[in-house]
From TrEMBL:
CDD domains: SF2_C_DEAD (cd18787). This is ATP-dependent RNA helicase T26G10.1. The lineage of its organism: Eukaryota, Metamonada, Carpediemonas-like organisms, Aduncisulcus. A motif (Q motif) lies at residues 1-29. It comes from the Eukaryota. Residues 437-456 are annotated as: Disordered. PROSITE patterns: DEAD_ATP_HELICASE, HELICASE_ATP_BIND_1, HELICASE_CTER, Q_MOTIF.
Amino acid sequence: MSFDKYDLSESILKAIKKLGWSKPTEIQEKSIGPGLEKKDILGLAPTGSGKTGAFVIPLLEQLLSNPRPFYGLIISPTRELALQIADVVAALGTGIGVHVVRLVGGVDIVHQALQLGKNPHIIVATPGRVHVVRLVGGVDIVHQALQLGKNPHIIVATPGRLIDHLENTRGFNLKKIKYFVLDEADRILADDFQLALEKIIEMLPKRHQTLLFSATLSKDIDELQKLALSSPVQVSVKSTSSGKDDPSIDGISLSSVAKLTQKMLFCPAAMKDMYFYELLQRMSGRSMIIFCSTRSRVEKLHFMFNQLGLSSVQLHGKMAQAKRIDALNNFKTDDTKRILIATDVAARGLDVPNLDVVINYDVANDPKTHIHRIGRTARAGKSGLAITIVTQYDIEDILTIEKQIGKKMEPEKVTKDQALKHKGIISSAQEYATQMVKMQEKRKSTKGKKGKRKGK
């Protein structure tokens, strides 16, 4: 099975080939045809199954045959996922001059309004910011009005930020939308955006195509599809072995987890970093995400890596959105930065092509978080490796995780002697990292005090 069977345009076929997609994934194979036929779709598929291509390819093909502003609207649950969708849209539309606008929180709304004025083809957005007054207060209304009638072609957004623009950007509306996508609808509803979705759906024209994708078919999803879909084609990813629905936990397929090689490195808590460094030596040259439980742990490891001569990128929820985007782009595109150290902000929705390893420096707080973390590798049927570092204080948590995923982790063996040979360099790196964290906190404290004095 190849993409040629769909009679796609040459420019899109070239873009697909450039992305390295040799054949459609199961959800793509079942969705692209009905999508091209302009049928509503209810798609049930877990994270990492290739859903983005399943709805972007038909959208771009339709836009090619009928180029017009405000043609497509894609709703996503998170900023990071919206940005990734926008990247896929841009990559697949590279040969047809697609203009993508991303409407996400954490980015200046005035800048976004300027982008809306440049007639983008596609808008990608996230639920965004709820406190609208704080975002738009102090912005000249004439300046906003100038951005109004310059009609983008495609919108990728989160519900909240989209509502922001619908309520505050004069002239911006959804009356011309022909192609509407709700991606990971179960996660959107879980974040209490049901009222926002209902409001968005009410603003759409009567005649449009809707594609709704979810990992599960719950009562809320059933109610949503009744509201949003008309005589939909239902497609789902099935287990190839049993023919039954592929079981999942919080949107992550358990069959995909089963394809992962999962290992556990047991070590004494006092020697954790020595064992960890030995593990890193073995993983040299591989791309990896290292998950930590706190922001301070991420920052400390990042400083340690600097001292150890390891190039890394850090990602956590306290970073400004622009810095988070830069960090992800650096990790994805810079071959010298093969290590991403992150909190669980990176555990959901991120799609990193060809990620080799996930390392849980800290054991996840619950099985769902563990599954989302390791789900960053082994995407779309590929193989992957996940290693969890376990100390004497983590045994109960790791047993709970193993029971939930129905799989015992293989041991990753590092001897005490192998770890101890790194004692000197690790002690030095730990001391350096502690000093750097203290300096960083001091700078933040000083900056905060100056800000308070200015406000008086």
